[in-house]
Amino acid sequence: MRLLVESWWQRLIGLAERRLPALTRHRLPESLPIRLHRRRIYILPTRFGLIFGVVVFAMLLGALNFNNNPALLLTFLVASIAVLSFHHSVAQLRGISLVALRADRVHAGDHVEVQFCIHEDEGRHRPALMLEQDGQEVCCSAVAEQTTLVCVQLATTRRGWQSVGRWRLWTEYPFGIVWAWSYLHPEQKILVFPPPETEAPSLPGEARNEPGTQYRAPGDDWVGLRDHRAGDPPRLVAWRASAHSDRLLVKEFADPVGKAVVLDYAALGALAHEHRISRLTRWVLIAESRQLSFRLRLPGNDLGPGTGPDHVLACLRELALLP
Amino acid sequence: MTRRATQPSNATLEPSRLIGAQQMQALALLLGASLLAHAGWMSITLTLYLAALIALRVWWHVAMARAVPMPIRVPLLILTFTLLFITSGTPVGRDGGVAMLLSLAVLKLVETRVVRDGRMLVAAVFFVAMTEFLFSQGMLITVYLGLVAVGAFASLTLLRKYPDSAQSTQLLGARLHAALTAVGRMALAALPLAAAAFLFFPRLGEPLWGAPWRGSEGRTGISDEMRPGMFSKLWTDDTPVFRVTFDGRVPQTRDLYWRGPVLWNFDKGTWSLGRWIGRGDILPIRYRVESVVRYEVLLEATEMNWYFPLDLPLRPAPDSQLMVDGQMVTSKPIIAPKRLNLESATEFAFEETPIRGHRWAALRLPPGSNPRAIALAQQWRAEGKSDSEIIEAALKMFNANFTYTLEPPPLAPERSVDDFLFETRMGYCEHFSSSFAFLMRAAGIPARVVTGYQGGYWNRSGSYLVVRNSDAHAWTEVWLQGRGWVRTDPTSAVAPERIIRGSNADALPAAMRWYHNNWAASWLDRVDHVTRWWRRRIVDFDALRQEKLLVPFGVVQTQWQHLVMALAAAGGIALAIGVWWSMRGMQLRARDPLLKAWKQFANRLARAGVIRAVDEGPISFSQRAARQLPHIAANILKLGEEFAGLRYDPARAPDRPAREALIGNLRRFRVRAQT
């Protein structure tokens, strides 16, 4: 029975979305910042609100029946405060904007903490806001003229770009008689890195920086000074050292080469596509934790060799975005 | 510039369906306040019991920290209903019904456990508070119940699944104060809308259902009997019974007899009604046209069946009948305040040709009662005195030997007249009228007792007359050949001031005369004037007055459609004003001048090409700006650091001189062109 109702409801919603795009246009993803204005804030009575309405109606009937004017006055006062509170509920949300989304590094299968940066600029404190999606709800309040970070947990399943989905920002404030809501559906996506293989073999051709390591220039590590050659950029010139000698010297930077780790997609031919990506991811993570210089060879792409967070992130990004 | 709100890390934001201690206390306070509103009429036992139950519930919540279990709740339920039945009778009718509603609300508090229960309780409180208007419609009680409603809304703001993180550490008093201030402001903003609805909401022409109760539940006032000692309760009761505005001539004080029940039967010291008296739309009277007085009476809900017209009314008021003995009787008890327009004549001849049976009824005495009084009357008759001479003799006797006092010795009901006439000789109107009528009947002169009010208090501030319960009076009417019923007030023979100056002029001890002091009197006059305004303008507002509201707008025949349109127009404007005013109050009182100066600073930098990202903090922003504008980098960095310190470091925030200096520096900041 419930399923039947549910399916009918879904059909109705579908029909409404097709027929009245204006009604549901705020279900589509939008680019940041998303500012809530009154046309996109909806309001309905809560269950308690319906009961409250019945009570006020009973009060009205009683007062009218006995022509009891003070009672009528009280009834109208109660009803007027309630009506005013509808406006306050809407005003709770009006003028709030979602200015940014932030997320930590995440690999598929893990939960990621996504931060919604909610900005208030009308100078009103807005308590008791709820951010909700699929049963997860977070209570927060927006402080006047400040940006509040609201953290939610998001499950990830597969690598690649993932949308944060549509979140509902709602409030029952002040009396719980009505609830006002609006949707936040940011276009901005978070990049989910591939899941690292849990029991991966150790790195291929593993090596450390030892004396006698060959370097390949240009690179990041300072190696020494050498004579100036035509075409060297002037910012590399070591002016002070040059002043002490009679030649023009330049600083040389290079990366260790020699037995640099090469993580090659093609070398893992025996494994399935996703399995290879997952193993490469694990290797990248191992290399990162040991601060090794490594090179990642992917179909149509060759990264490195290199080291450091930027390199690691670039590699993970390429892995995540592999077809 | 940012604050964090996270679900797992912030313990104060744990959702809880359960009612917290503060929420329980707030609910208890609210229920106690609505119980207090009803304390005036409800039995003291029940009131104290319910109050104790509320207090115990709060104690239980604090001490036990769990729900009240069934083995306690069930006996409590039985005990409550037993007590309810003993003190208030069946729940059918006004008193029993409202007492039951209140008890149910308190029982609901006992079992309240989760937030939803609390909300339901608050919804019930709105209704329970309103039922008090079935008992009293005064201005003060209306204001009080309005405050209770504000309190109910304030408790709704506390009843939330997620406590407000900033407030959860505060004490209940501080939280209630904050909530009450906010809701009170909303209530003020809602008043115009409520007023518009009050003025223009269409009223019912006919009630949908009848009165839910029978009246007469022990309210003091004139009743349909005159028992010995009955009036003594009324002397100290200053409750106004009605207020009179005269249209034109104001009668003299000695003519101000407000006629109530007319008593024909005497037995065992008690005078009671003659049930068989017929009704007469036109009384058998002749009156002087010049003596006719027109006046408006605002009558309080007396819960009795009498109007109190000035002696003698010419025609009945709506919903009432005029009996041939001149009492104006309503078909139902007066349970709501009334406004009457009446006409009376003060000089008249009443029933000159006797109606059959009246003479017999006005001469009846119970056999064998008060033999000494009968003997005295018959002695007068034997002396050959005429009717008027006998009346004269009786009044002379009262005048010579009797004392007017409000605290007479008690009398035995069987010998009340004898004891009074020959032993105690001290009493007030009740004793004088009772024994005078008895003497007259014993002497063969038809006589009856009339109760009602005499005199009244002239309110100078509003030029109207207030008649209070303490003005209650009883007098006598004797029937004389050729003159009809003649009002004879034996009390005036003993204490003429009582009639000329009013009840409290003479007999009351000095201590009770304080309000005749000038300043107090004029102050009380004003208070009563406001009360009367409330009665006339608010309590008596009805469909008729509603129709007059639209006359200035050219609506002659007001239909409900007109009212709905007026309601929409006035309500719309009132709502807009209310929303605007209450929102304005929610904004920061004055925007932080420091923040304003900082925004100005950021705008200047933006014009120079350094646009602040929305989520960028002051330090990182000023560092970025310093890199892009190296020639003024030092100044920018200094301002950024100073601003971050003063705004976000709680230790530095109170440093006012530094703030002022920084605001000045930020305002003076300019992006100079690079030279």
Molecular structure report:
The complex is a heterodimer of chains A (323) and B (675). Chain A has 323 residues and is an alpha+beta fold. Chain A has 3 domains: 25-192, no CATH class; 195-211 and 258-323, no CATH class; 218-256, no CATH class. Chain A has 7 helices and 16 strands. In chain A, the strands form 5 sheets. Chain A has a 5-stranded antiparallel β-sheet with strand order 2-10-9-5-6. A 4-stranded antiparallel β-sheet of chain A has the order 1-3-4-7, with no helix packed on it. In chain A, a hairpin with a 7-residue loop joins β3 (96-103) and β4. The longest helix of chain A is centred in the N-terminal third of the chain and has 25 residues, at 69-93. Chain A is elongated. Chain A starts with a helix and ends with a helix. In chain A, 36% of the residues are buried. With 675 residues, chain B is an alpha+beta fold. Helix content of chain B is 48%, strand content 14%. Chain B is built from 22 helices and 19 strands. In chain B, strands 2-5-4-15-18-19 form a 6-stranded antiparallel β-sheet, with helices on one face. In chain B, strands 11-7-3-17-16 form a 5-stranded antiparallel β-sheet. In chain B, strands 8-10-9 form a 3-stranded antiparallel β-sheet, with no helix packed on it. In chain B, a hairpin with a 5-residue loop joins β9 (320-322) and β10 (328-330). Residues 1-13, 213-218 and 504-515 of chain B have low confidence and may be disordered. The interface between A and B is large, with 69 and 74 residues.
